[in-house]
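Q: I have 311 residues here and want to know how they pack in 3D. Can you give me a structure?
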Amino acid sequence: MIYHLLKPLIRLALRIFCPGLILPDAKTIAIKGPLLICANHPNSFLDAIIVAATFKEPIHFLARGDAFNKPWHASLLKLLHMFPIYRLSEGKENLGLNETAFENSRKVLRKNGIVLIFIEGICLNKNELQPFKKGAARIAFSSWKEGIPMNVLPMGLAYDSFRNFGKKCAIHTGAPLRQKDLLLYEEDALNYNHFNKQLFAAIEPLIIQPSIKIAFPAWLQSAASLGTLIHLAIYRLASGFVAQKTKGTVFYDSVLFGVLFFGYGIFLCWVAWVIWMITHHRILAICWPLLLPLLAYAAVLKKINERGQNG
């Protein structure tokens, strides 16, 4: 329920946070399961947010296990279709819990759903592909052994920046791979090696750093200046807080998006309340909060345009 309620709002928010999006074709965006998406992982939870907002069908994710340490975190992430998966660095005692994540993935695939796994098993804020773990292969092979007619979709994600607000992101997908392409041997070790080699070869050329130019008409200049003036204080407050809390981690972009997504809604409600208390004018109280996101969008376009001119 929460997933479906938030999805259209997140799509709108991404238009401001990440206006330079290069997306797959309409046929890929509308693809149905059972499907295992294998992608690289350059920008923590923001990767999952963008993919989920892009595809029409619900996406279920495998996310790093330490994000589920607090009970309320775990409850919220599960409502957003996320399953915890653990690495050795998160405690050897937790590795046994990964079978639950794999079983949850198979449950989704049995119902012709879509599962996304970041096949590198690590996020480094880099557009370069890292060595693969075995989690994706384990899900694929165990699903095929059950007779689930699942395909594997290679995906590459790349960003122009991991710190700038108003960014460009490119999502490219390859041709779906089938069981006969990836399950060739009797020995598990040979199959794991073959699976990862095939996926590496498929994903690497899909990681293309976006270089598109975003048009900024001259008539938007005044709106952009006004949008910058209105939003500068709240943005600096949010970005400074997030930078401090995520220092030394790869979570800056994704946490900033989350803080702005939820905080901006509160900000708009506060603006509407203030206007109503001052003017008692219903139309003004409604229209100004609707206008502010448009001014913010213009400000972001200006910022991207200036950044592009400066190289």
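Q: Anything worth noting?
A: The chain has eleven helices and seven strands. Strands lie at 20-22, 35-39, 59-64, 82-85, 114-118, 151-159, 168-173.
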